[in-house]
Amino acid sequence: MTAEETQPEHDLVLVVDFGAQYAQLIARRVREARVYSEIVPHTMPVAEMVARNPKAIILSGGPSSVYEPGAPTIDTDALFGTGTAVFGMCYGFQLMARGLGGEVSATGAREYGRTRVHVGHAGTLLGGIPTEHNVWMSHGDSVTAAPAGFDVLAATEVTPVAAFEDVDRGLAGVQWHPEVLHSEHGQKVLEHFLWDIAGCRQTWTIGNIAEEQIERIREQVGPDGRAICGLSGGVDSAVAAAIVQKAIGDRLTCVYVDHGLMRKGETEQIERDFVASTGAKLVVVDAEKQFLDALAGVTDPETKRKIIGREFIRTFEAAEIDVIKDAPEGTKVGFLVQGTLYPDVVESGGGAGTSNIKSHHNVGGLPEDLEFELVEPLRTLFKDEVRLVGEQLGLPRRSSGATPSPAPASASGSSARSPASASTSSARPTPSPARSSPPPASTATSGSSPSSSSPTSARSASRATAAPTVTPSCSARSPPRTP
User: Fold this and answer.
1) Which of 170, 171, 380, 408 would give a disulfide with 166, using CB separation of 3.0 to 4.6 Å?
2) Could you tell me which of 31, 78, 34, 40 has the C-alpha nearest to residue 59?
3) Catalytic residue among 32, 38, 165, 179
4) Which entry of 177, 182, 192, 259 is annotated as an active-site residue?
5) 89: left (phi > 0), else alpha (psi -120 to 50), else beta?
6) For 387-410, how does the pLDDT look when each residue is reduced to its tens digit (9 = 90+)?
7) What's the rounded Cα separation, in Å, for the pair 173 and 175?
8) Nearest by Cα to 135 from 72, 195, 179, 200
9) Prediction pTM value
10) Nearest to 280 by CA among 207, 217, 224, 231
């Protein structure tokens, strides 16, 4: 077997989170450079990180001082002894400097907000970037001496070492936040590290993402497996359904649960438009009374999320009986398609991400006695990537950009319709002679693959992000709306 045959599909960049507010934004910026990235906590042992064979590791910012007792840290001896390329920003930059023998000092000269930086020696990291430009700073401590073997690339009026690199060892860093819009040429700095210093391959494209997921789902479901997809009316479930439809064709049935919490007319719109948009079979379940009864008297949003997740699964299990009526004898719908996204997993404390922010009904509300095997084609994707995949798959902009009325949020507001007219849960057909709407001939075929394109066109949407505010070292707090 050749080296090419054993090489992974994509190079992996790990973003080590030290409490940064923008760890997810950093990961997204890496993907905009067409390199795959994931977030891991700083508590993950270095040996475990290295075992994943990352091409590069990025050390994020954070709210602490590197000298503060109990401040988040990492085994720098182990990390820098691996030979893996490492890039530090803000707090991560200071951890690098200190861990490699440089000096970090509390100079008393803090910098935050838009700051003028002077590039004295561009090197590789800052090559082609103007000598004077604005960056976004948010720090109290400063690197006052670079480690041995490093070239100092930039400085500010009060920070003598604002960027450095040791290209031979694959190490580099900046004191500012290149991931935010307020830092001019920030994406170019990240790309210079990823492409020119770490040598990452630019293989993470929207076309590749869709093609790979289609093939993985074919393998997971098998030649005879059948799947059911919970359709919400939003972009996530619509794109997930479209991917699975490409993979297994008419062995997918989509179930839309009318739980009584949607906007007025939204259910009818989904019934009218979805089949034409995705080519999938659709069954609508009237579960309004079931959901409203289960949520009656509940005020805690987290409890509502758990209840909604539970009731969704119970509804799918009941709908399975109706779905298999049209399936060949002896078959079972054994797979459940969900539009779980990467931020859902990270924010729910699942996988290798940050601490629990909130549970998501796609992640934290699933019953332990789940009778389906989950199919989650979007689990590694950010929202902007999902939208681009939808466009690549031919979904109309209305479907690939749709945002459903969020069930947990709606349950705590006034959007729920009166239960007076609700009936017990029962499947009702879409407006067609058949119980399940058959897919249009033009979109029912499986196996077609989208063209390849770069996800960098998502920048305009994902760059609309405010910059960090100042804390002793680097920020993880709510940012100002404007600098």
Assistant:
1) 171
2) 40
3) 179
4) 177
5) beta
6) 999 988 888 765 555 555 444 445
7) 7
8) 179
9) 0.75
10) 231
